[in-house]
Structure formats: structure tokens, C-alpha cells
Specification:
By secondary structure, the protein is mainly alpha-helical. It is 75% helix and 0% strand.
Length: 161
């Protein structure tokens, strides 16, 4: 019987064997930004609970915090992108972030509206519905963000031989 155990000398070697280290770094950075985004949004939603349009405001506040963390960590850690000027990268990143904010907000509201229109009642409160919808929208936006950052915001310049 063949020995199926695999040994790796370094963590990096193991990650390369099992998938893209860049994507794993993106997920780590994204997870950090996600936690900060979602946490900020939840805290903002609680702080502004008597205010009308609390959901939209809290999503925007979460995005501001999460986006700043994401830009710095993705530029320096995930993509190691130093080919372009910082200002150009920041503009491209913000275009992606703004489109992602719009996408996330639309998905969140479509989920909430769809839940209400369908007459579902399995979630215990409006607050839980809003948080669940936002969580699902952020998860979908992660896929969009990776592709947009890799191929647009932090795209490496082609090396000519």
C-alpha cells in the first residue's frame, strides 16, 4: 500500500502545494477586513438604532473601515503591488470599493425585500434579517473583490522578455 502522507518543510511550501498562496493571503486579509467591516456596521447599527435608514448608514461606515484596512494589507501583503504610483492604485482600489459597496447594498436590500415579499418569518427580528442579509452580501462581494483587485487595482505590469 502506498504511503499517502505528505510532508512539507515550510508553511509556504505546504500552501503552494494546496493552492494559490496569493488567494489564501487575500482571504486572510479579506477576513480581517470583513470582521472590521461587519463589526463596525453592527456597532453603528446599534448606535444609530433610533435613526431612519440605519442599515444603509451602517453598511457605509463598515465599508469605510474595512476598505482602508483592505487597501493597505492587500497592497503590501497579498499582491505586493509596487509597480504603479500609490495614488493610481488608490483610485483604482476606490473604484472597486465603491462598486463593491453598491453591489453589497443592492444585494442586502434585495434579500431583505425578497424575504418580506415572500412572507418568510423564520428569522426572529428585523435586526437579525438585516444582519443576515448584509453577511450574505459581503460573502458574495468577496469573490468580486478578489477578481477586481487582482486584475485591475493591483495588476502586475507584463514583463517583456
Amino acid at each position: 500500500m502506498a504511503n499517502i502522507s505528505v510532508k512539507h518543510n515550510t508553511i509556504k511550501e505546504g500552501l503552494q502545494c494546496y493552492g494559490s498562496t496569493q488567494f489564501l493571503k487575500f482571504l486572510l486579509v479579506g477576513g480581517t477586513a470583513f470582521i472590521m467591516n461587519y463589526g463596525t456596521a453592527c456597532l453603528t447599527r446599534v448606535a444609530l438604532s433610533p435613526v431612519r435608514f440605519t442599515l444603509g448608514i451602517s453598511i457605509a461606515m463598515g465599508y469605510i473601515v474595512g476598505t482602508l484596512i483592505s487597501f493597505v494589507l492587500n497592497k503590501t501583503f497579498t499582491f505586493k503591488a509596487y509597480d504603479e504610483k500609490l495614488s493610481l492604485q488608490a483610485i483604482k482600489f476606490m473604484l472597486v470599493a465603491i462598486s463593491s459597496l453598491l453591489l453589497t447594498t443592492m444585494i442586502t436590500y434585495f434579500f431583505v425585500i425578497g424575504y418580506d415579499l415572500a412572507g418568510f418569518t423564520f428569522l426572529p427580528s428585523k435586526s437579525v434579517l438585516d444582519s443576515t442579509a448584509h453577511f450574505l452580501a459581503l460573502t458574495l462581494a468577496t469573490i468580486y473583490n478578489y477578481l477586481a483587485m487582482k486584475h485591475y487595482s493591483f495588476k502586475k505590469k507584463a514583463v517583456l522578455d
